[in-house]
Automatic annotation (TrEMBL):
<feature type="domain" description="Methionyl/Leucyl tRNA synthetase">
    <location>
        <begin position="132"/>
        <end position="515"/>
    </location>
</feature>
<dbReference type="InterPro" id="IPR014710">
    <property type="entry name" value="RmlC-like_jellyroll"/>
</dbReference>
<dbReference type="InterPro" id="IPR029038">
    <property type="entry name" value="MetRS_Zn"/>
</dbReference>
<keyword id="KW-0030">Aminoacyl-tRNA synthetase</keyword>
<keyword id="KW-0648">Protein biosynthesis</keyword>
<keyword id="KW-0547">Nucleotide-binding</keyword>
<protein>
    <submittedName>
        <fullName>Cupin domain-containing protein</fullName>
    </submittedName>
</protein>
<dbReference type="Pfam" id="PF07883">
    <property type="entry name" value="Cupin_2"/>
</dbReference>
<dbReference type="InterPro" id="IPR014729">
    <property type="entry name" value="Rossmann-like_a/b/a_fold"/>
</dbReference>
<keyword id="KW-0436">Ligase</keyword>
<dbReference type="GO" id="GO:0005829">
    <property type="term" value="C:cytosol"/>
</dbReference>
<keyword id="KW-0067">ATP-binding</keyword>
<dbReference type="InterPro" id="IPR023458">
    <property type="entry name" value="Met-tRNA_ligase_1"/>
</dbReference>
<dbReference type="InterPro" id="IPR013096">
    <property type="entry name" value="Cupin_2"/>
</dbReference>
<dbReference type="GO" id="GO:0005524">
    <property type="term" value="F:ATP binding"/>
</dbReference>
<dbReference type="InterPro" id="IPR009080">
    <property type="entry name" value="tRNAsynth_Ia_anticodon-bd"/>
</dbReference>
<dbReference type="GO" id="GO:0004825">
    <property type="term" value="F:methionine-tRNA ligase activity"/>
</dbReference>
Length: 681
């Protein structure tokens, strides 16, 4: 017999509670389960968490509140609580002076874990509403879009938009041009042109490039083209002002004596006060943390290069601290990657600041408060108000729907795409602003972030001209080929690099050589053996069943990679390359049996399955290569729109008796995008 006594010195802080591990008992007793004795201090709550083990709580003293997903139950002495694997849970001690004692026992059952993981994936489907509102950032109107822009939120949002439409959802993609950004005026000054002219030219160029890249946008917001835009944004500010949601403070501000100008955002550069990397005033692109101009290390004026001095200046600030608890609760529900989670955690750990929302400037929307007419609203508060609330109202007005529905309707889910350099504003600043403006505003359910896309090892830069411009690239290469490679190399969780030689090699080796060859071979078999008419499946073999199982697994993997919570065009493209490899091998291997009449029933199944694989490719690649997929869809005899409720979670056969048309082929060149092969092949 072994006897073990508790020693408070051995208790450890785990999950925000004091715990003593019981079993397995190190070097004494090995058990197939784990166990801990836990103490929850009065009015404390454990960390919300889940794990792969099943777990049971035995309450031995005190009273608590068990909080799971959408359920809260009060428990006390003698209560036993079971949590299936992957169930988010926590317990709160509801006593003001009595400790809560419990024993937890947890164990591993991998079969149950696997089944529960599949069930949870269905239960936790974040985007389930019939309408999906998708946003991508308004690019700064100081130039056109380069491939770095396209590879990230813009192509990502369009791919997701098309996927959701294929699932039968109503979707609205919102984008625009950030015309009132300080970078627009700064570049115009350096170019010696009127900033309004630069903003207008850039916004037009951005729209043209998006269209050339087949990126569809339901509302492209150009602030200077809407007569009621300025008034709306000013009223947004005034509502916060009159409700004391913003404060006026005099603080030390950087002033360039040579330029006779207060410096902010684009006009000031230095080093990040947190990580020491080169940074402009706003936020650090390296660590993602927020900063103010006077916090920068070794700041210089971006106009003349001189060192600024500090002068007192009264500006309006938005206090973020009061929204800390709501942000903590929001972060437990919203889906975002580890990079954004780190920014959120770091922001809370640093302490939420009062953020300046006005600046002395003659460019942008004037502050609508007497005595501050020489100040302009910060572009980020404008973007929150105008770029989201105003634009949502415009979309709903066009639909004859209630104003602001997309941000208040329970039947609408919101997904936002953006780059890591904007992470702080999307996950910290915007939610707090929306709560301050209207507590009924519905926030995004998923944030889809991307890292920087590099060119020759350095970040793309519009201001420095270090870029491959989207419009130039798309005039030379087909949109389908460009979209495939940008998806293939998308900087999802780490920076990736663009190389034109690698782009051409990737398209040639995979799409032109493998995909085109397989499609031509499958088309030839169908024509030679069945006159181009899809046969009805006949007898099945083990090879048939194995191939169909592969198609099903690939469809499941691609579906998973298209969902917002697990969004990965990188995975989609690589999985589809594998699909074609498997399908081509299947078709070639089964062709050995084509001349044996004794195998004609099995042969029908082979051709029907290979044709189903072509259909599967058309569906799975459609969000990434819409033109090619649409032509392939038509080749298979479908006259219904591809982007409208056509998605199949389980691969289906093409109706037998249908005659195929002209087979489309993929081309690298923009001049050969309509290339087809005739049925005689």
């Amino acid at each position: 017999m072994l006897i073990r006594k508790f020693n408070i010195a051995d208790f450890e802080d785990e999950y925000n509670t004091l715990c003593q591990h019981l079993y397995p008992w190190t070097e004494r007793v090995d058990t197939p389960f784990g166990s801990m004795f836990c103490i929850v201090e009065p009015e404390k709550v454990t960390k919300r968490h889940n794990h792969h083990e099943g777990e049971t709580f035995f309450i031995i003293q005190g009273k608590g509140l068990i909080i799971t997903e959408g359920e809260s139950v009060e428990v006390g002495f003698g209560d036993i609580v079971y949590f299936p694997p992957f169930t988010n849970h926590q317990i709160k001690n509801i006593s003001a002076d009595e400790k809560l004692y419990l024993i937890t026992v947890y164990w591993e059952n991998m079969k149950a874990v696997s089944e529960r993981a599949k069930t949870k994936a269905v239960e936790d489907a974040t985007i389930s509403a019939p309408t999906v509102f998708i946003t991508s950032p308004a690019p700064c109107a100081n130039g056109d879009l380069h491939l770095g822009h396209l590879s990230g939120p813009y192509l990502g949002a369009d791919i997701y938009n098309r996927y959701q439409r294929m699932r039968g959802k109503k979707t609205y993609h919102l984008c625009g041009a950030d015309e009132n950004q300080s970078y627009v005026q700064l570049k115009a000054i350096k170019l010696g042109i009127d900033p309004y002219k630069l903003a207008n030219q850039s916004a037009t160029a951005i729209q043209n490039t998006l269209a050339k890249a087949k990126i569809s946008v339901d509302l492209f917001l150009r602030p200077n083209t809407f007569s009621d835009y300025t008034e709306f944004v000013q009223n947004f500010f005034l509502k916060l002002y009159h409700q004391d949601k913003i404060v006026l403070k005099e603080t030390p501000s950087l002033y360039c004596e040579s330029c006779e100008k207060f410096l902010f955002q684009a006009y000031i550069a230095g080093k990040c006060p947190q990580c020491g990397s080169s940074s402009e005033a706003n936020s650090c692109e390296t660590c993602g943390r927020s900063n103010n101009p006077n916090e920068l290390i070794d700041p210089v004026c971006n106009l003349c290069g001189s060192k600024p001095v500090e002068r007192p200046l009264a500006k309006f600030y938005f206090p973020l601290k009061q929204y800390e608890q709501k942000l903590r609760e929001y972060y437990q529900k919203v889906k975002m990657d580890s990079r954004l989670t780190a920014i959120a955690e770091q922001s809370l750990q640093d302490g939420l600041p009062d953020r300046p929302i006005t600046h002395i400037s003659d460019w942008g929307i004037p502050v609508p408060v007497a005595g501050f007419e020489n100040q302009r609203l910060d572009p980020w508060i404008e973007f929150a108000a105008g770029g989201h609330i105003f634009a949502a109202e415009k979309i709903n007005q066009n639909l004859n729907s209630s104003k602001g529905q997309a941000w208040k309707d329970e039947n609408t889910d919101i997904v936002q795409f953006f780059g890591c350099d904007n992470g702080y504003f999307y996950i910290v600043f915007f939610p707090a602003l929306f709560w301050a403006y209207d507590s009924n505003v519905i926030l995004p359910k998923v944030f889809v972030n991307n890292e920087f896309y590099l060119l020759e090892g350095e970040k793309f830069s519009t201001s420095r001209g270090h870029a491959v411009w989207g419009i130039d690239f798309l005039q030379q290469f087909s949109a389908d080929a460009a979209r495939f490679y940008l998806a293939y190399t998308r900087p999802e969780t780490q920076q990736t690099n663009f190389s034109q030689s690698e782009f051409e090699q990737t398209i040639h080796d995979n799409l032109e050589e493998q995909w085109n060859c397989w499609l031509q071979e499958a088309n030839s078999r169908l024509i030679d053996e069945y006159g181009g008419i899809i046969p009805e499946p006949g007898a099945w073999t083990d090879n048939h069943r194995n191939f169909y199982r592969e198609l099903t697994k690939i469809t499941e993997a691609v579906t998973f990679a298209y969902e917002a919570e697990t969004f990965s065009p990188q995975k989609v493209t690589r999985t589809l390359i594998e699909l074609v490899r498997i399908a081509r091998g299947f078709g070639q291997a089964e062709a050995y049996l084509s001349e044996f009449s004794t195998k004609k029933e099995e042969r029908r199944t082979t051709i029907a399955l290979e044709s189903a694989a072509v259909k599967t490719l058309a569906l799975l690649v459609a969000p990434i290569m819409p033109d090619f997929a649409s032509r392939l869809w038509q080749y298979l005899g479908y006259d219904t729109p591809l982007f409208g409720g056509t998605w199949e979670d389980i691969p289906g056969f093409i109706p037998s008796g249908r005659r195929v048309g002209e087979l489309p082929l993929i081309s690298l060149s923009a001049t050969n995008v309509e290339r087809t092969t005739t049925p005689s092949l």
